[in-house]
């Protein structure tokens, strides 16, 4: 049985007239996400919850089980999700959204099996992301080369230094983050104080790398958000040290996930595979050709 229905997100129906008796689609997604966090969403659920709450949804259910979901706003699809055998249904839901929202700008889509979504929907691939889950053993202490030290970020005084380091790690991009934005992240429910740390060079008396990790209590998920090493210190194994230390600091979580880019120059999938991440799932950010749009920043790590 396929039931296709339009569900309103919670922020659009403050009176909750219908949602009192019927769960919102976000509430239906949450238990699924808890069972298989690495198979759903290209970024942790807690980071996109507010966006999803403001979305409309088209969903397909297989009896009582949710099998495909499209969450969309006024001009973009924010999320698609499907169990592999329902890829065809998901494609039909996307077409329905395109009919409802003619000004659609981009569509994040999880690749399902071998389906070439971009070809079937006449869309371009704007970016490819991965999402993976840590499968390695419980990590022990991480050995750090002499002269380097790991220090936890103090959000009271270190945020400008952290912002500078993060910006310097992407010399080809314009400044993309500042201390104010980091302060907002440090107040978010997913902020995990132990997960923000520097790799410091004691001789230079300054950080040369950093990691930012979060934790979502509702899904018991620890996630690696950012790992950076300054350009001139790369290729010496420091990225792996930061990733291992992040895993160690997140080890108490029910699962540890990471998402990131598969496109050069930020293709970091191999680094995480080397560190014990597996079950890689690929997402593609799809967009309509020849439409002016803001750069896609789908990858979180
Ligand atoms: C990604 C990054 C942290 C790696 O730092 P690093 O200190 O050079 O990493 P390591 O020396 O530990 O590299 C270990 C392995 O990771 C992989 N790797 C590292 N950087 C990579 C890149 N840019 N592309 C593909 N693979 C990469 C390689 O497999 C490498 O193994 P090898 O040395 O045997 O080839 C660093 O390049 C960086 O800060 N990049 C910009 C920020 C970024 O993209 N961060 C990741 C997402 S937040």
Structure description:
With 301 residues, the chain is an alpha+beta fold. The protein has 2 domains: 137 residues, Aminopeptidase; 128 residues, Aminopeptidase, CATH 3.40.630. Helices cover 25% and strands 33% of the residues. The protein contains 8 helices and 12 strands. An 8-stranded mixed β-sheet has the order 5-12-6-11-10-9-8-7, with helices on both faces. The protein has a 4-stranded antiparallel β-sheet with strand order 1-2-3-4, sandwiched between helices. Strand 2 and strand 3 form a beta hairpin. Helix 5 packs across helix 6. 39% of the residues are buried.
Write the layout of secondary structure elements.
Elements: E1 2-8, H1 25-35, H2 45-53, E2 56-62, E3 65-72, E4 77-82, H3 87-100, E5 106-110, H4 117-121, E6 124-134, E7 148-152, H5 159-168, H6 179-187, E8 191-201, E9 206-216, E10 221-229, H7 238-249, E11 255-261, H8 269-274, E12 277-287
Parallel strand pairs: 10-11
Antiparallel strand pairs: 1-2, 2-3, 3-4, 5-12, 6-11, 6-12, 7-8, 8-9, 9-10
């Amino acid at each position: 049985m396929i039931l296709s229905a339009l569900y309103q997100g919670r922020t659009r129906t403050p009176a909750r007239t219908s949602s009192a008796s019927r769960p919102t689609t976000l509430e239906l997604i949450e238990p699924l996400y808890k069972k298989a966090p690495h198979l759903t969403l290209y970024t942790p659920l807690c980071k996109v919850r507010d966006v999803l709450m403001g979305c409309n949804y088209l969903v397909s259910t297989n009896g009582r089980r949710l099998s495909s979901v499209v969450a969309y706003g006024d001009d973009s699809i924010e999320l698609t999700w499907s169990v592999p055998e329902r890829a065809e249904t998901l494609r039909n839901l996307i077409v329905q959204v395109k009919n409802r929202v003619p000004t659609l700008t981009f569509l994040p889509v999880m690749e399902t099996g071998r389906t070439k979504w971009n070809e079937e929907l006449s869309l371009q691939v704007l970016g490819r992301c991965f999402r993976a889950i840590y499968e390695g053993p419980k990590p022990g202490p991480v050995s750090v080369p002499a002269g380097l030290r790991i220090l936890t970020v103090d959000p009271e005084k270190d945020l400008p230094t952290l912002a500078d380091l993060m910006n310097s790690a992407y010399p080809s991009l314009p400044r993309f983050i500042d201390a104010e934005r980091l302060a907002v992240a440090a107040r978010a429910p997913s902020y995990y104080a132990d997960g923000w740390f520097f790799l410091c060079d004691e001789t230079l008396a300054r950080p040369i790398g950093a990691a930012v990790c979060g934790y979502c209590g509702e899904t018991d998920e620890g996630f690696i958000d950012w790992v950076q090493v300054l350009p001139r210190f790369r290729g010496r194994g420091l990225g792996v040290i930061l990733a291992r230390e992040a895993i160690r600091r997140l080890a108490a979580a029910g699962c540890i996930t990471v998402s990131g880019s598969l496109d050069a120059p930020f293709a970091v999938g191999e680094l995480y595979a080397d560190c014990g991440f597996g079950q890689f799932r690929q997402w593609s950010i799809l967009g309509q050709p020849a439409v002016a749009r803001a750069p896609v920043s789908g990858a979180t790590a």
